[in-house]
Amino acid sequence: MCRHAAAGRNRMSFKEKWEKSWNFEKKMNVVIVWTIAAITIAAIVVSTFSFVMSITKQNSQYVTDQLTIMAQDCANNLEQYKSLITACSMDSHVQEYCESTSMEGLYGEMGNVYNSFLNMLYMQYNANFIAVINTGMNNYLYNGNVNINESFFEKFCEEDYKKSMTAKTKGALKVSFSNRYHNSRKYTLTLYFPVYSVTKMVNSRGLLVVNLDDDLLKRFHQKESPYSSNLYLTDVEGNIVSTQDESQIGNRIAFAEQITGDQGRFWHGGMLISYQRVGGWNFYMINEVEALSLYRGCFGTILILLAVMLVVTGTALALARNMTKKLFSPINKIVSNMNDVSRGNLRTRIHVEDMDSDGRKLADGFNIMMDEIDVLMEQVKEEQRQFDKMHLYALQSQIQPHFLYNTLECIHWQALSEGNKEISTMVKAMAQYYRICLSEGKDIITLETELAHVRNYLIIQNMRYDNIIAFTVKVPEEYFSIRIPKLTLQPLVENSIYHGIRVKEGKKGTIEIAIREAQEDICLTVKDDGVGMVKEQLAVINQNISNHNWDVGYGISNINKRIELMFGEEYGLTFRANEESGICVEIRLPKEWQEEPDRGYEGEV
């Protein structure tokens, strides 16, 4: 049985241990440990993140700088090729060949053109062949380091030219990176440039074709790099025109939509993508670097940082535990005395002779607190005596309303016996008015009682103001039993008289009380045909009616606040203008409350 009890204690949750088992010292130790651990983890995370971000930024900049250099080299190569083919097109023999309109003219220039091509092939070591096509005569001249049958020039020239792309935004030069020539054995760069007359730059007379082995990207890949990366040359549409893996040539790169502007970098699928426009050419040099290769160099530093932080954390925990032990020694003594107080010994006091300065302050505070408790207990006893006396006075005051009713009743019968019906009527109405106002201490009354209260009030007011107020009630009898807060309608009727009817020209008017159901609510309306208000005034009243604003009126605000406290802020008063004249006040109450008789607010609210 003891083992079961011990097992039950061991199975206590952390929350139960915190609330029921551990003392303040142990809780403080736990809080300190958690705090130091949280600070350590946060410091490690922030330091590691900052360090990694710094290294990443440096490495990313290095990659971008290298890519800029490669893009510039590529642009220089293309500019060199452009200069070559431009110079070739300006050669006088090439011009004569392209402008020839007869076979004799063609044959006459073939030797000279062949020699010009031969010189250019010597100058451009990586050129495979150079060809010129006379488009008018549909004839060509070919010279190259590769035999025409091996290059398949005749077979693929027209197809490759159609699939070539414009090299620059401005200019007629077109380029093609493909393996169509040379029987698909290798990918080569082919330049296509129209030959214009040097005197009349109107229509081209021919077409120059230069095919080269461009190994720029291969040479870049052969360079040692600290990162694992892939290098691409793409056109502006994102189609790969050159890369180390030739099987990807012609495919569209996956992140083509993110490449905008002349240069930039972004992350895509765990890779750092850097791109650089190749000069003024319609190509991009793109370098794709694995994220892990950017971080690889900082792993050792992170491990050292972790080790240092763990050592610091262990030292801080040891020091904190020692400090809390010394700090809570006097507190434990105070707790022991407080246990005596909890057992009912309010005369307990702490002796401070054997405590340090902090302990003495705590003990002094405890002793002062116990003295104050003695004083407060005496005050509570005195307040209870005063409360009993006030309750007695309240019971005695309930006798006084009966004296008021009896006195008014005597005046009523005395006036009636003397034949003064007006005084009799007014006194009787006043007696009933005050009887409903008191309502035996109840704050919730029936609508029938509230309407009777309004009628008694209007009897008095009509006798006072020479019958200037006509009163209409449009409430079916089935609604007489519904319950509303006492003195809800009468203050609104009074407001209509003093601010609507009395101030209008003629000083006669009508007040109407009606009722309707609106979905889950019951709406009472109090209408008058008085002078009314402008829209701005009504807006101010509706906005401030819940705030006890003196501009709204204390009585109206009081009615609204009582309804809100009973039923919620969605219920209460709303003021609006009638179509013809006067004001309509809508009182919204919950219908559900009327259907639950046991949920009343009988008595004082």
UniProtKB/TrEMBL annotation:
Residues 325-378 form the HAMP domain. It is found in: Membrane. InterPro entries: Bact_2-comp_sensor_kinase (IPR050640), HAMP_dom (IPR003660), HATPase_C_sf (IPR036890), HATPase_dom (IPR003594), Sig_transdc_His_kin_internal (IPR010559). It comes from the Bacteria. Keywords: Kinase, Membrane, Phosphoprotein, Transferase, Transmembrane, Transmembrane helix. SMART domains: HAMP (SM00304). One of its GO terms (molecular function) is phosphorelay sensor kinase activity. Its main location: membrane. One of its GO terms (cellular component) is membrane. The chain crosses the membrane at residues 30-53, 299-320. CDD domains: HAMP. This is Sensor histidine kinase. It comes from Parablautia intestinalis.
